[in-house]
Design a protein that fits this description.
Elements: H1 2-34, E1 43-46, H2 50-68, H3 72-92, E2 94-97, E3 101-105, H4 107-116, E4 121-123, E5 129-140, E6 143-154, E7 157-162, H5 165-176, H6 186-194, H7 198-207, H8 213-218, H9 220-232, H10 240-258, H11 262-275, H12 280-297, H13 300-316, H14 321-333, H15 337-350, H16 355-367, H17 371-384, H18 388-406, H19 408-444, H20 450-477
Antiparallel strand pairs: 1-2, 2-3, 3-4, 5-6, 6-7
Helix pairs in contact: 2-3, 6-10, 7-10, 10-11, 11-12, 12-13, 13-14, 14-15, 14-16, 15-16, 16-17, 17-18, 18-19, 19-20
Length: 488
């Protein structure tokens, strides 16, 4: 009897212990669901500083006015506070990406959280389009220094950041890799695939035997003779080793173009084309290089050669809808809407679900002023859009142009807005130039006459006021008139 009692008590204790462990495990699991581990940031980059510098320039000018009015202490406090605040904002205002969500952190994000109830953030699946603009900041020999500005938009939000250092390269790789190709413009796609460190590119070029610019210029004639000889004797199919080397040369050529080493990029493309002259994508990329050279060196003949290379690429890749889309976009960028429309239509004949071809045809129709065609192509793009974000963007554009087409009052108001926006842009550029010249006159004027200095300060003040007014006007006029969006 006693043994039976001991056995029952032991079972009860074991049962209670198991239940306690089970309750503890359930509580830990519940806590894990309620408070998931904080996501790790894969990339972090500085927000584009243009707005901060514009504000700092304006306040610096105000401090100069105070200094001229002999309010030295107020001027000192204002300029110190201005640049301290700008430095603080520049170091703390960041874009963060954790693999799933793009978010903004810093004082501005905190202000958004207080005013709107949430910080600016955008999920990868909600990205509607990624566009890249370039600025040539330096040209020396055959090399160009590019500055890239990336705009990512979706769900009524826009995030902008500019190139600069390893953090930018890491953000481009981490952020653009999960974004599908149909949301990227041509430059964004090229940055994603070919943005690398300039030193690493130069080392790869040296390993492949691509000489520096100075050597290439000296051996230019020899290269041409060698090229003709090799093309005349290159009838047989390339060996596996030659094909692999051509692939390496193609990658290095694109990497060199992105970092601005255009002459060396041209040499790498030349060697790759000697082996893979039938590769349609390689010819397309070579056309992009020719366009870059035409813009950098101001040579119209290179632009004509770029268009010819695009036509050849379209002929060789007539069954590749993705390539035809990109060729059409390049033609549109080069100011050839008729050729662009032809490429887009060929892409649709190859693949009826070509989303970017419909977008391209809408842009061509817009350049020709055919609103009905614009609406039609955006509606088709919304119908075949690969995901909800792109369908939402195409539907929004279709609704906007449909209202322009149907409502004359709305069309007149939008035309006024666009005219005012264009005028504000011209005023801003003119005022910026005049203000710099007037400020120089104001600073030099006292050595000539006080009247000259006074005129310089008056003109500089008027120009700065006009510049500020134009900037504010542009901000107010950038947004379109409201259109009731259709459900997607």
């Amino acid at each position: 009897m006693s043994r039976t009692l001991i056995f029952v008590v032991r079972e009860k204790l074991l049962s209670n212990s198991s239940q306690d462990q089970l309750h503890q495990a359930l509580a830990e699991a519940t806590r894990g669901i309620a408070a998931p581990p904080r996501s790790r940031k894969l990339a972090r980059v500085r927000i584009s500083p243009a707005g901060y510098f514009a504000g700092a320039a304006l306040l610096t000018f105000v401090s100069l006015i105070l200094l001229r009015a002999h309010r030295d202490l107020a001027a000192l406090i204002l300029i110190a506070a201005t640049w301290f605040s700008v430095a603080l904002l520049l170091t703390s205002d960041r874009l963060n990406f954790d693999g799933r969500m793009l978010s903004r952190s810093g004082p501005v994000a905190l202000l958004f959280r207080l005013l709107r109830g949430g910080a600016p953030r955008l999920a990868v699946e909600d990205v509607e389009r990624v566009e890249v603009t370039t600025l040539r900041t330096l040209r020396r020999g055959g090399n160009v220094r590019y500055r890239y500005r990336i705009e990512i938009s979706g769900k009524g939000q826009m995030f902008v950041f500019a190139s600069g250092g390893e953090s930018f390269r890491r953000m481009v790789k981490e952020l653009l890799l999960p974004v599908p190709d149909y949301k990227l413009d041509a430059r964004a796609r090229e940055l994603r695939d070919h943005l690398v460190d300039a030193k690493a590119v130069r080392a790869q070029a040296a390993d492949l035997g691509i000489a520096p610019v100075s050597v290439l210029e000296e051996t230019n004639e020899t290269i041409k003779i060698e090229e003709k000889h090799r093309r005349a004797n290159h009838d047989q199919e390339a060996s596996p080793d030659e094909a692999e080397r051509a692939a390496q040369l193609r990658k290095v050529a694109n990497d060199l173009r992105i970092v601005g080493r255009l002459r060396e990029s041209a040499e790498a493309f030349r060697r790759a084309l000697l082996v893979s002259a039938q590769d349609a994508w390689l010819i397309y990329e070579y056309a992009r290089l020719l366009r870059s050279q035409a813009g950098a060196f101001g040579d119209a003949r290179l632009l004509s050669r770029a268009c010819a290379a695009l036509k050849l690429s379209a002929t060789r890749g007539a069954d590749d809808a993705r390539l035809l889309e990109r060729i059409g976009e390049s033609f549109l960028e080069y100011g050839e809407p008729a050729r662009a429309a032809k490429s887009f239509r060929l892409a649709l004949e190859t693949d009826e679900a070509s989303y970017r071809a419909h977008l391209g045809l809408a842009e061509v129709a817009l350049s020709e002023g055919k609103l009905a065609h614009v609406i039609h192509h955006y509606n088709d793009a919304a119908r075949i859009a690969p995901d909800r974000a792109t369908a939402r963007m195409a539907r929004r554009e279709a609704d906007y142009y449909a209202r322009l087409n149907d409502d004359e009052d709305y069309l007149a108001s939008e035309l006024r807005r666009m005219n005012w926006l264009e005028g504000a842009n011209r005023v801003q550029h003119l005022a910026a130039r005049v203000s710099f010249a007037a400020l120089l006159v104001a600073l030099i004027g006292p050595s000539v006459a006080q009247v000259v200095a006074g005129l310089g300060w008056a003109l500089a003040s008027s120009s700065v006021i006009a510049w500020s007014g134009a900037l504010i006007t542009k901000r107010l006029l950038t947004s379109r008139g409201r259109v009731a969006e259709s459900e997607v």
